[in-house]
Amino acid sequence: MSLGLVANLARPGGNITGTSQLNMELGPKRVELMHQLLPMATTIAIAVNPANPAVAEVQTRDAQEAARSLGLQLQILEASTEEEFEKAVATLPQHTGLIIAAGDSFFLSATTRFAAITVRHRVPAIATGRDFTAAGGLLSYGGSVADSYHLAGIYTGRILTGEKPGDLPILRSSKVETYINLKAAGELGVTVPQGLVIAADEVFE
Questions:
Q1: Quick one: which H or E segment has residue 33?
Q2: Over pLDDT 90: what percentage of the chain?
Q3: Residue 5 located in a structural domain
Q4: Which ranges in the chain belong to alpha helices (H)?
Q5: pLDDT value of position 7
Q6: Are 12 and 170 in contact (CB under 8 A)?
Q7: Per-residue pLDDT tens for 121-140?
């Protein structure tokens, strides 16, 4: 709604409806997960895109609040290009965990390349989607893309049978998925809690 695309979520109006998934709201949980993985670390970092200030501001604020509640310092890395991202990651002190901010198309568009950068610099990192972990990143925690597609398919059928998009409420997928790369954890010297491994949707070894 903040972008002005719909009047409200329950009744969008006009000729638009759709689905959304949990991602930006999960920022504090990603801070908690990083703290679980690196319990001795006193500082964690978050990468945000300054070219998208609205998203960066929300992500930074939420991460700062979560870090403060855990007694952690938060380091902000700003990057709008892959080159800037790699330079920023290269400056991180050893054993500093990195959270790659969600909700920004820049980070979503090159997930596998960002994973490769974190691997190259031996940085424990959390992102949002399965592709990040499959490419060698440590952990992914985010809303289910597949579930969002499923909901969108249902709406497509309803619209094709005559319902008006503006009368259909915006659906939100509440399913969250966790992916863990245990090979990356071993190479980074990170111990993944057994409970997290058991609860994961998929584990790469």
A1: helix 27-37
A2: 60
A3: no
A4: 27-37, 53-69, 82-90, 105-109, 111-120, 130-134, 145-160, 182-188, 194-199
A5: 59
A6: yes
A7: 999 999 988 999 999 999 99
Asked if residue 57 is part of any domain, the answer here is: yes
Q: What is the CA radius of gyration of the chain?
A: 18
4-48 pLDDT per residue, tens? 555 555 666 666 666 665 566 788 999 999 999 999 999 999 999
Instruction: Tell me the residue range of the domain where 55 lies.
Output: 19-145+173-199
The token pair that represents 154 in the structure block: 């249902």
| 3-class state of residue 21 by DSSP | strand
**Res 30: pLDDT:** 93
Cα separation, 178 vs 165, whole angstroms: 32
Query: Would residue 2 count as lying in a domain?
Result: no
Q: How many residues does the chain have?
A: 205
* Full strand arrangement of the beta sheet holding 125-127: 73-78, 43-48, 97-100, 125-127, 139-143, 176-181, 202-204
Please check whether residue 132 is in contact with residue 142, taking contact to mean a CB–CB distance below 8 angstroms.
no
Q: Return the structure tokens found at 204.
A: 């790469």
